[in-house]
């Protein structure tokens, strides 16, 4: 049988960038194809062409071996191609059922009048969820759902179009580890029902669990398509980068200096339970824990973004009363937040503006911005962090994910911090960009900055941290120095209590050893 979808010699060029270069791609009915590549490899352009958001400059798209044109997103839906993007498009104030049929609410005619047919909305929405074998309250507001449940609503919305091809763009990037397996089961179930799935991801460990085949893009070209059994992390990384790649092997452990940050008995109802630890200058302290373990809430509390119920925060030996972002910044604390697009950057603003947002107080004299000084500060950070941008005036939203993340970090480095709180600094960026971030983190530690490093990828914490704290349901439960624990053991500790429903109240922070014990 012919492929359900195929692309032949598809090319797309933007000013100065050949985004897709004579791409050949095909997808069979019931196949899950993982689509991989570095930031800028062409994945997003390919997805946009399939969704009807962009048009190719040349080449041919076929469905069931018949040439088609996809002039807009409506046409893509009509042809049975649905895309679920990484940034969800749900309306928080509407119900699950209303979101699944968003923009397509059936009407009930009453003479010259019409009204929304809520019963039909619920019926169609229930059918879409039943196809996924997922149970959700149709009348629940989406804002009250977990991120994982919201992702399932997005997929159910796509299912309601009766698609033949589904494109899932980084569907697990914001999911806790326990929910990823649920999504993978849903994807496999869709494939068994005959849907063709294009699964875009940066997480190499997901591929053998969900995909049948793997296509790798590099610099707008298809490097190759292989069976999932052949898709070892090393082979895929080599295909993506174009050269042999190995995880970084760091040298000797850092030699921590004085205590930069001390957290004592920090409590926030429902999130933090008697959290106590110290961070030393020149040290990378990793926090390993599942989404929802309290990691993000911890750094937000330290930074003063969220209020605490009790506890004490010391910076360089001085207690900071009533922490607030401005007060913590003034005391030498910086925070690169979990969601760079919503909390770390103003995407339409120029690179110059985003690199100097946190240091405007240093660049103003009597309320007047010293533009030349700001440009010097920003250009210095572009050079030192190797930020790839055509100029300082380019909108930050046009940069790749890795370069956007460097801008977030550079913005806070321009404040000359003593402590940098880094929450998910590698989310949604490719392997090479991650390695650059790792090198940057280690270099900053060598300069004497204390780094608190959080990542959902436990491997990253093991790779970059000098010391690791395990966080579970708001408690710090274990501590290890570099080299004292392997990945399997750490993963077990991270998941054991949450995974088995044990009461973490029995785990006291006192069980966490002293940093230099």
Could you give the topology of this structure?
Elements: E1 5-14, E2 17-27, E3 32-36, H1 43-51, E4 58-63, E5 66-68, H2 73-78, E6 81-84, H3 96-100, E7 107-110, E8 113-116, H4 118-132, H5 147-159, E9 165-169, H6 177-192, E10 196-200, H7 207-210, E11 213-218, E12 221-227, H8 233-241, E13 259-268, E14 272-280, E15 284-288, H9 295-303, E16 310-315, E17 318-319, H10 325-330, E18 333-336, H11 340-344, H12 351-356, H13 360-363, E19 364-365, E20 368-369, H14 371-385, H15 401-413, E21 419-423, H16 431-446, E22 450-454, H17 458-464, E23 467-472, E24 475-481, H18 487-500
Parallel strand pairs: 3-10, 3-11, 6-9, 9-10, 15-22, 15-23, 18-21, 21-22
Antiparallel strand pairs: 1-2, 1-4, 4-5, 7-8, 11-12, 13-14, 13-16, 16-17, 19-20, 23-24
Helix pairs in contact: 4-5, 14-15
Keywords summarizing the entry:
517 residues, Rossmann fold, 33% helix, 26% strand
Tell me what the structure shows.
- This protein is an alpha/beta fold and 517 residues long.
- It folds into two domains: 5-240, P-loop containing nucleotide triphosphate hydrolases (Rossmann fold), CATH 3.40.50; 259-511, P-loop containing nucleotide triphosphate hydrolases (Rossmann fold).
- It is built from 18 helices and 24 strands.
- The radius of gyration is 24 Å and the shape is globular.
Summarize the structure.
The protein is α/β, with parallel strands linked by helices and 517 residues long. The protein is 33% helix and 26% strand.
Q: What's the overall average pLDDT, rounded? A: 86
Strand order, biggest sheet?
A: 6-9-10-3-11-12
Q: Work out the radius of gyration.
A: 24 Å
Structural class: alpha/beta
Task: Give the N-terminus to C-terminus distance in angstroms.
Answer: 65 Å
Number of strands: 24
Number of DSSP helical runs? 18
Number of domains: 2
Beta-strand content: 25-35%
Low-confidence stretches: 497-517
| CATH class assignment of the largest domain | Alpha Beta
